[in-house]
Every structure is written in structure tokens, then in C-alpha cells.
Predict the 3D structure of the following.
Amino acid sequence: MLLSHVLAEMELQPGAEDALVIFGFLCFALIVALAVAVFYLLTLQKALSRVARHNRLLEPGLVWLSLIPLIGLVWSFFIATRVPDSLRKEFRERGMDDFTDYGKRIGLANAVLGVVLSAAAVLLSIAPSVWWGFVVIPAGLISLALFIIFWVRIAGYSREIGTSPRQQDHVENGNRSS
């Protein structure tokens, strides 16, 4: 209501009101995406911080590099491999390995889809076509599903590490498996 009142008082050129609404929606979507990214990265950071230092293949604070444009695209491959591999090493050391890949394939599939979607976005800006929607929309939905599954899996493994006691005698005797 307030926005429509302000817009009614202003003398806008035709179509400017629609542009402001679209701009507002995009700003809202960006804020939501950033909030989701922060919670996701906090989950990854917490999972890595629960892994013993000698089992970590990535320091917890480095997950935040994902927020840097273009670097984040490449960094998603490091996240997809090093977080699950760190978890695997920790679970093996604790004698709790379930012999899964700890979400590695899902994370890698999502990283590859991220590159495909980025390339599609560039191609869409070069050669706009309605047909790109038939590629981008399904790929985007699949990427979203993989992102959520990876996030939930990492959170579950993190919770499992956080609630299980470390096998101190296993670690103290130097019986570490890699």
C-alpha cells in the first residue's frame, strides 16, 4: 500500500512502475538467496569444525570463499569433494564409517550443474530465446534439489559427529586409518 501511494505521488514514465516492482522483487530474491547461502555455509563450517584437525581436508573458515563471484563457482568443486572426504576420514577414525560417499556425488553433480547453468546464463544473454527455458528451468530445479539434499546430508553427518563420543583410546594409540 505504501509503495503504491508513493508511486502515485511520483510522476513516472510509462513502464517505470513495472520496472520498480521487478527491481524490488529482485532485491528481495537476492536477500533471501544470501540468507540461504549464509545458513548453508554455517552448516558446512560447523560440520568441518567438528572434524578433528588432522582429518580435515579443508579448514572450516574457507567455506566462505563460496560467496565470491566466479571463485565460488570453482570453489563449489572443493566443497563437494573436501567436506565429504573430511567427514569420511573422521567417521573411519571413530570406527563409524558407513561406507557411503558422504554426499560427494551429489555435491559434485550440483557443482557441475552450477557450471552448466552459468554457461546457459551467458548463452542466454548472448542469444536470447524462449527455448533456453526448456534447459534452464529443469536444470535449475534439479540443482536446487541436489543442493538441498547435500545440505541435509552434511547437516546429518555433522549432527552425528556432534552427538557421538570420540574413541579416545583409538586416537591415543595412534590407530588412525586414512
